[in-house]
Amino acid sequence: MDDIDRLLVAELQRDAAQPYAALGQAVGLSAGAAHERVRKLRERGVIRASTVDVDPALLGKGVLAFVLVSADSWMGDSGAAFSGIPEIMEAHVIAGAASVLVKVRTSTTEQLQDVLRRIYDIAGVTGTEAVVVLETFFERPVQP
After folding, report:
1. How far is the C-alpha of 130 from the C-alpha of 124, rounded, in Å?
2. Cα–Cα distance between 10 and 64 in angstroms, integer?
3. Do 64 and 105 touch, CB atoms closer than 8 A?
4. Could you give the CA distance from residue 61 to residue 87 in angstroms, rounded to a whole number?
5. Whole-model pTM over 0.70
6. What's the confidence (pLDDT) of residue 111?
7. pLDDT band (50, 70, 90) for residue 51
8. Alpha-helix residue ranges (DSSP H) falling in 1-144
9. CA separation for the pair 112, 66 (Å, rounded)
10. Coil, strand or helix: which one is 17?
């Protein structure tokens, strides 16, 4: 990746819906050249998807929690089990006292409790520790 690719990625993270003409102008390329570079970034897997950034609270998912999951065995093969719980937005195998860290969004704390019950149904899980977010200062995209 060169500096222009990094600028393209940053611009797309800011607004993935902008036309190639505007994208090219922002980074000093023609619309066609910008389109070609973006195509190559997709082919290389740098750009995995183009999405819309929504406000979870306005969609009725105002409860955000991070859950540390403890286990009695290696959890590296349990990704499918975690992804089978739709309220889990992210799941990461981690080093430390816990084995997995998950990011959960629900409408209510009662629904969060139900998610915790379903996590306990995953083979090897022995415990959870939920940290409920009261306020988010900011969230950043990955800097190219």
Report:
1. 18
2. 26
3. yes
4. 9
5. yes
6. 98
7. confident
8. 3-14, 20-27, 31-43, 79-83, 109-120
9. 10
10. coil
What lies within 8 Å, CB to CB, of 45 at 6+ separation is: none
Q: Which of 17-26, 47-56, 63-72, 124-133 has the lowest mean pLDDT?
A: 47-56
CA dihedral of residues 65, 70, 74, 75 (deg, nearest 10): -20
Joined tokens for residue 123: 């083979």
- Statement: residue 140 has pLDDT above 90: no
The residue type found at 59 is L
DSSP 76: T
**Measured between alpha carbons, how far is 63 from 106 in angstroms, rounded to an integer?**
5
Per-residue pLDDT band at 52 (split at 50, 70, 90): confident
69 has which bridge partners?
100, 128
How many helices (H) does the chain have, and how many strands (E)?
5, 4
DSSP label at residue 65: E
28: alpha, beta or left? (left if phi > 0; alpha if psi -120 to 50): left
